[in-house]
Design brief:
This protein has 323 residues and is an all-alpha fold. It has 15 helices and no strands. The protein has one domain: MetI-like (MetI-like fold), CATH 1.10.3720.
């Protein structure tokens, strides 16, 4: 297994190099640059703007700019400096937002699996009943519901009308940092956006788990276990659920990566200061060092998610590990 992990990591190097080149040159093909995003329609002397472009290296040939950017990443893990937020290092800016996105992703994943697994099992065991039809109807509704629409409905209902949850931010800034109230405030700000993301993320887990359990109920090994008088509860826990959970386990790595890539709408609508909101801001202000770094980071997370899913699958299923 370790040889496979090392091989996949080595293959990842040229993939990331290709993605970095594609992202960099595509961003340079966009109209304007970071100085356009900073000054906008402001009446600024063209000479000053030209001097700033020269200072930031924006007038250098594209290949030279790309080579300088990649060399900084490889040698110093330096993705450059943001051109619109005080020339701060991009890694520092992303690091500040990453903590918020990690908290949101973890809580979303907990809600997502805590809701999807019981619903998938119940729908399969109660196949054809009213409960099963209600769960299937929920999956169809969630699949058809755009993220923006559900997020706005949740925000309007539980944020504005009922005032159960905050409508923006990640914590109450008036509280003392590190206090118990500060911790509770962070959780309180996380609940509504994480539940919203989890409701939409349960669809595929429920459908796959329901389908796998239904197929497993008619398999030969389940029929054999029943003929031997094995209790139904043990058949489900030891045979059906364990085998049916394999696709869910393999999806876990992709689910973790998908929470980061799919958080753009959630963080923007709930004004949650994470990397999703940072990505939108960097695009609108043409702060390409930040947006390029985020795209490259997302590609790395997706690749690592696939690797983690394969490793978890070998842990759960010994047959795959033997192969």
């Amino acid at each position: 297994m370790w040889k496979t992990v090392v091989r996949r990591l080595l293959i990842l190097i040229p993939q990331l190099l290709f993605i970095s080149a594609a992202v960099f040159f595509m961003s340079q093909a966009m109209p304007g640059d970071a100085l356009t995003g900073v000054f906008g329609e402001m009446d600024v002397d063209a000479q000053i703007i030209e001097e700033l472009r020269e200072e930031f290296g924006l007038n250098d040939p594209l290949l030279q700019q790309y080579g300088r950017w990649v060399w900084g990443i490889v040698t110093e893990f330096d993705f450059g400096r943001t051109l619109t937020q005080g020339r701060r290092p991009v890694t520092d800016l992303i690091g500040e937002r990453m903590a918020n996105s990690v908290r949101l992703a973890i809580l979303t994943l907990i809600f997502q699996y805590a809701l999807a697994i019981p619903l998938g099992v119940i729908a399969a065991r109660r196949r054809g009943t009213v409960i099963d039809k209600a769960i299937v109807l929920y999956t169809f509704a969630a699949m058809a519901m755009p993220t923006i629409v559900l997020a706005l409905l949740m925000l309007f209902t539980f944020g504005f009308n009922l005032s159960w949850f905050p409508i923006r931010g990640s914590v109450d800034v008036l509280l003392e940092t590190g206090s118990f109230a500060y911790f509770i405030s962070r959780i309180h700000h996380l609940i509504l956006p994480s539940i919203t993301a989890a409701l939409l993320g349960t669809v595929f887990i429920i459908n796959i788990l329901r389908s796998e359990i239904i197929d497993a109920q008619n398999s030969d090994y389940v029929t054999t276990a029943r003929s031997k008088g094995v209790p139904a509860g043990r058949i489900y826990s030891k045979h059906i659920l364990r085998n049916s959970a394999l696709p869910i386990v393999s999806m876990l790595g992709f689910a973790v990566a998908g929470l980061f890539t799919g958080s753009i709408f959630i963080e923007t609508i709930f004004s949650y200061p994470g990397i999703g909101q940072l990505f939108v801001t960097s695009i609108t202000t043409r702060d390409f060092p930040v947006s390029n770094a985020l795209v490259l980071m997302t590609a790395f997370l997706i690749a690592m998610g696939a690797l983690i899913g394969d490793v978890l699958l070998t842990v759960v299923d010994p047959r795959i590990r033997v192969r």
